[in-house]
Amino acid sequence: MSDVSTYNRRLTPRAKAGLGIFARYATILGLLAMIVAFSILSPKAFSTLGNFTNVLNQASLAMIIAGGLTLAVVVGELDLSIGFAASLHGILVTGFIVHDKLPIPLAIFMVLALGALIGLVNGFIVTKMKVNSVIATLGVGTIITGLAFAYSAGVPIVAGVPEAFLQLSLGRWLFGIPNNIVVMVFVLGILWVLVERTSIGQEIQAVGGNPAAARLAGINVDRIKTLGFVISGICAALTGILLASRLGSGTTSAADSYLLTAFAAVFLGSATLRDGEFHVLGTLVGALIIAFGFNGLNIFGAPTFSQYVFQGAILIIAVGLSSLGRSLAES
């Protein structure tokens, strides 16, 4: 029995209920407190519609890749290949368009299909070869990095990127809202409906909750786990495409940093509204906390290293809150 569980048994029902409420709503309260504090300290720079739109636009790609990661985590696995894969996809989509002269829609479709294929490979290694998902996806991610360098020779693909591809990420085609925000809302909305409102979503949650019981209930556990990896792979591909469009280039390590951001958002999300459970809405809240935190640090001129400290601290706090919520739910 864990020390936390032992401690929980000593708490009064009222204290335990209070801790449970704190574990569920601490992240949301923290987000609101952060926004209020930054708004008071810098109302002209922070609390403006333009700044909030900019925060959402900058964070939209991290939200998309974190949304895909959420599905992999919900089924009880980890996908460490997503950042490396997104970098590869950004290189490939620009290469297909610039070097191979493929139409933009075809290049995008091919890269999304590759993202699904990488997810299938991850799923096969984990479910059929019985390799731990951390080892499997880290190995696949390392291979992907090698393929990215092989394709680009380590040189960014910059010249010749058409304006139409740049507008995919930089344009504002719907009511003046940045395209990346629209895509993010659409993707997270689809993922939320899939997990929370469909029979497949019930199977996904059942597999993540208790794979053995799910198998006894007739659920194809391997298929569901592979589906989680495929969705994660597609979201990584979409993130790489939109990032290449935003940057106007394909670079071998452009999206690598999204890995830590995505995991921090997912684990923060597991401490939001539910007792240590991973879910799409929680991931959105987690991503917003990170995004507004970074934005506030930038506005107040904090040095670059502080962002890494902030993100690392957020990840530790997120895991701690998630563990607390899960422990309270089990005690």
UniProtKB/TrEMBL annotation:
The scientific name of the source species is Mesorhizobium ciceri
Q: Which domain of life is it from?
A: Bacteria
Under the heading InterPro entries, the entry gives: ABC_transp_permease
Transmembrane stretches, by residue range? 21-43, 55-75, 82-98, 104-126, 133-153, 173-195, 226-245, 257-273, 280-302, 308-329
Q: Which GO terms describe its molecular function?
A: transmembrane transporter activity
Locations listed in the record: Cell membrane
Pfam (any one): BPD_transp_2
Output this protein's name. ABC transporter permease
Which cellular component terms (GO) are annotated to the entry? plasma membrane
Sorted alphabetically, the keyword list is: Cell membrane, Membrane, Transmembrane, Transmembrane helix
Q: Does the keyword Transmembrane apply?
A: yes
Q: How does it sit in the membrane?
A: Multi-pass membrane protein
